[in-house]
Amino acid sequence: MIHLSLIGIGTGNPEHVTLAAVRALNAADLILLPRKGEGKSDLVDLRRLLCRNLLEASSRTRVVEFDLPRRDARADYLDAVDDWHGAIASVWGELIDTHLPQGGRVGMLIWGDPSLYDSSLRIAQRLGAVMKSVGGRASDLALQVDVVPGITSLQVLTAEHRIPLNALAEPVQITTGRRLRERGWPGDAASVAVMLDSGGAFATLPPEGLYIWWGAYLGMDKQRLIEGRLEEVAASIIEQRAALRERHGWIMDVYLLRREPLRREQ
Asked: CA-to-CA distance for 106 and 72, rounded, in angstroms?
């Protein structure tokens, strides 16, 4: 059997890794670390650091790095992502067949949590079929997938800004920058959390009456936070985001929008 653990590791602070994640890491026979190119070397560096610090001295866990396939940037986004997921599943299958041909435990360190705007679970669902098509020694082994939850960027965002995610007795819509641009403010939501924004989707909204809490590199030493009325801080966020991306070569950010500012107790 191939036992695949998708291990949530939070957003960049090693102290956010749970005890369950530490146990799963040390139980693995093989840990696969994706490399996303030089521009995002911080992401694999953190995973390397976690392995060095959290794997026990007596551990026989093998750590294997691999280059993540690139996604086609063609116009049909969903088709491009589907093909990309298939390519990643093929790489996983080949690595497992090479390093665990008789079966064993595989660990994947997942940024944030595997359940929230992460495709690892979808890729894992394709892995069994991919391994059979590869036809290697591990192709006839059963596949079992487990998830170890991790701290999400939304949790860190609200913690750092010291706010609840939702307004009192009101719903929250979690969406993407792409959807916000295409469809505007979602329905009856009082609060909108936005992830995977390529930059400035909030600027497409009428800013009057909106408040924003924004954060980049959450949990990392380069973390940046901005909050305020959208009409007053939107330009500053866009400027800061561009400068940070230029400086570091990559950026991860997330933000929460609310129709009215949260009243803080004095």
From this structure: 27
For residues 159 and 142, membership in a common domain is answered with no
**Distance between CA 265 and CA 146 in Å, rounded?**
42
Beta bridge partners of 112: 10
Do 164 and 246 reside in the same domain of the chain? yes
81 and 209: one domain? no
Q: Are 253 and 197 in contact (CB under 8 A)?
A: yes
Please state, in angstroms and as integers, the Cα–Cα distance from residue 153 to each residue in 21, 52, 61, following that order.
Answer: 17, 24, 28
87 and 173 housed in the same domain? no
Q: pLDDT tens track of the chain, all 266 residues?
A: 999 999 999 997 899 999 999 999 999 999 999 988 766 677 788 899 999 999 998 888 999 999 999 888 766 888 888 899 999 999 999 999 999 999 999 999 999 999 999 999 999 999 988 877 766 776 778 899 999 999 999 999 999 999 999 988 889 999 999 999 999 999 889 999 999 999 999 999 999 999 999 999 999 999 999 999 999 999 999 999 999 999 999 999 999 999 975 554 43
Residue 215: domain span: 153-258
Predicted TM-score (pTM) of the model is 0.88
How far is 220 from 156, CA to CA, in rounded Å?
Answer: 11
Whether residues 140 and 157 share a domain: the answer is no
Q: Are residues 127 and 39 in the same domain?
A: yes
Count of structural domains within the chain: 2
- Are 191 and 67 contained in the same domain? no
